[in-house]
Amino acid sequence: MEPDLFTAAAEERQEKDPAASPLAVRMRPRTLDEVVGQQHLLKPGSPLRRLVGEGAGGPAGPSSVILWGPPGTGKTTLAYVVSKATNKRFVELSAITAGVKEVRAVIDGARRASGGYGKETVLFLDEIHRFSKAQQDSLLPAVENRWVTLIAATTENPYFSVISPLLSRSLLLTLEPLTDDDVRGLLRRALDDERGLKSTVALPEDTEDHLLRIAGGDARRALTALEAAAGAALDKGESEIGLTTLEETVDRAAVKYDRDGDQHYDVASALIKSIRGSDVDAALHYLARMIEAGEDPRFIARRLMISASEDIGLADPNALPIAVAAAQAVAMIGFPEAALTLSHATIALALAPKSNSATTAIGAALDDVRKGLAGPVPPHLRDGHYKGAAKLGHAQGYVYPHDLPEGIAAQQYAPDALKDREYYTPGRHGAEARYADAVEWTRQRLGRKRS
Fold first, then answer.
1. Which CATH architecture has domain 3-174?
2. pLDDT tens figures, 153-201
3. Which of 121, 138, 149, 407 is least surrounded by Cβ atoms within 10 Å, i.e. has the fewest?
4. CA-to-CA distance for 396 and 394, rounded, in angstroms?
5. What is the CATH code for 274-351?
6. How many CB atoms lie within 10 A of CB 310?
7. pTM for this entry
8. CA-CA distance, 371 to 362, in Å (whole number)?
């Protein structure tokens, strides 16, 4: 069966028997005004609203749209709403299972339909980053000739995962993670709406809070868990979804963790102090608690980057690049896979040799500056490139270190008030031992008096 016919048949079944569809499908917004979150994309006059024909001039812009964002933020929903608002046929394919053959079948069907004055087609292609360059190339004729309105979705950076010709012909829209308030509003709508649970079951506050932690900003995950828990509660003859019922349904214990209260700071502090103390097992425990509580993975990654410099520094120069790479990966992939990346970085930092010399060095330097110990820059270090600098004596007498055999020029670099000040005291752990030797050697050649 052709993909477009399959999608049309599935949509027809949903309209005839809505209860047969999953809750996440039944609660799919029908208009842009029903979409939760993504308010930056839904402002009056925005490209997305113009795409569906709102505003002066009707539909405008490219016939290809790329939606980039974490899972469960509404990429499929936006594509569906565009098709409904423009009265176009909606066809959904996944790059995981579909290939060029399936794409061509949809495009050929769209050309026949448009040529016969039928409905135009919205082709929603999920996970486009999984298509090879050649497979993405096959989409170009359909985009250029507007045979279909292509809406492609990706969780990966499209500047790396989508070919330039397709990217340049597309409107790129970045979706932001849903907030707890966004997901909470969606859950409450699903509880009461005629398309949803029709007020057949209640959701107490503690269960709702745990459901939000489980969801982690993923609307689809939230609705799927709600539907399963509601079914279990009704099977028991209960009028509300208890916390125990939810835990049993989703097989996940409620983590006692308030992301906006003391627990948020206490657990984050315990994670960093466990890394500082080189207790890898305790660090992983606190990391797991933060993940299970639905902590923003970007917050965890930021704490790890700080720890890499604050507690490890030059004892392991690879610690900071590992932490930065983890933060970049987390931003690109999101949960649940980001848990692997955060674990990778946490283990590396906990087992690394430790040094706080970078922390104490900048602290001492800042302390002097705040006390007013600054003074003018020595004349030979000042900028000598502008007209008149020579008359002022700027850059006169400066010795270029690269001209010397050892690459060290014994000249004064610090202001007079600080010329003998030493801020950096290297440790002797790990790789920093060689920095300790280098500091001693260079200070001797600079003719620095020991403070």
1. 3-Layer(aba) Sandwich (3.40)
2. 998 888 888 999 999 888 898 888 888 889 999 999 999 998 899 999 9
3. 407
4. 5
5. 1.20.272.10
6. 17
7. 0.52
8. 14
